[in-house]
């Protein structure tokens, strides 16, 4: 277990400190993709049920964030990107983060079961467990494949949203899962390319630390190539249509070009502060995922007017 007891309270915690424990930026992505999964499902849900379901999915995501911050406080303290988080900064005690994470986990799962269905609640419970235990406590410090396998935790929300509406899974929800799962490695490895020293100081076996920048750039290209067919396949299913396919083609062309640019550059050019290509790729990766899921929503709206989908 992380030696989180070394972090002492430096002052009275503010409301914003507890909000920060929930990783609101990550939560926003979870909420958006879960909402898309719910809205593009072939079965409609009552607006009140849908609102409650998304709220409890968001709470589950926040619970995962709090548990992650509790466990990772020791490595967060030595990384520039994370040292100001509430626990390592001494704003919130480790026990409070653990208690909040456990309490929100229980509330989120039980209330999703009551408001939606047991299957969706079970998926949410597994997602919290996977992120807090399988990824945070096991994979993150053990293997350079941490972000590959651990990426599944961030890929479940649209599947949970779909399950809220349908009570199960399908090819479409599996492909939404696959889209996020395959997107996660190049997204985080691009970040790791210009944050390598952080992971090195923290002793986290990120691919950049264990295999070097050159191999990381090669893996980014490989995963980006593998991501493209998943994206196209999703656009060809019942949640897609001509508009979604056009968006997917354009986004993948840009993403593949960015991955190629990262891969082809000599290692000497990637030293120092010359990370413009990696930073551009990382920023676009955020837009890539958002625009994909936004396209699913637009396609669903077009279908209501008889303009979208595949005939």
Descriptive overview:
- The structure is a single chain.
- Helix 3 runs parallel beside helix 6 (118-138).
- The longest helix has 29 residues, at 276-304.
- By secondary structure, the chain is an all-alpha fold.
- The relative contact order is 0.11.
- It contains 15 helices and no strands.
- 72% of the residues lie in helices and 0% in strands.
- The model is unreliable at 1-10 (pLDDT under 50).
- This is Protoheme IX farnesyltransferase.
- Belongs to the UbiA prenyltransferase family. Protoheme IX farnesyltransferase subfamily.
Structure at a glance:
The chain folds into 2 domains: 14-168, Tetracycline Repressor, domain 2 (Orthogonal Bundle), CATH 1.10.357; 170-311. It has 15 helices and no strands.
Structural class comes to: mainly alpha
Q: If you compute it from the alpha carbons, what radius of gyration comes out, rounded to the nearest whole angstrom? A: 20 Å
Report how far the terminal alpha carbons are from each other.
55 Å
Say how many strands there are.
0
What oligomeric state best describes the polypeptide chains here?
Answer: single chain
Main β-sheet: number of strands, strand sense, barrel status?
none
How many helical elements?
15
Kindly give the count of domains. 2
In CATH, the architecture of the largest domain is: Orthogonal Bundle
- According to CATH, the homologous superfamily of the largest domain is UbiA prenyltransferase
Low-confidence stretches: 1-10
Strand content: under 5%
CATH class of the largest domain: Mainly Alpha
Helix content: over 70%
What is the arithmetic mean of pLDDT?
A: 90
Any idea of the CATH topology of the largest domain? Tetracycline Repressor, domain 2
Transmembrane segments: 26-45, 51-71, 92-112, 118-135, 147-168, 174-194, 220-236, 242-260, 281-302
Main location: membrane
EC number: 2.5.1.141
Keywords: Cell membrane, Heme biosynthesis, Membrane, Transferase, Transmembrane, Transmembrane helix
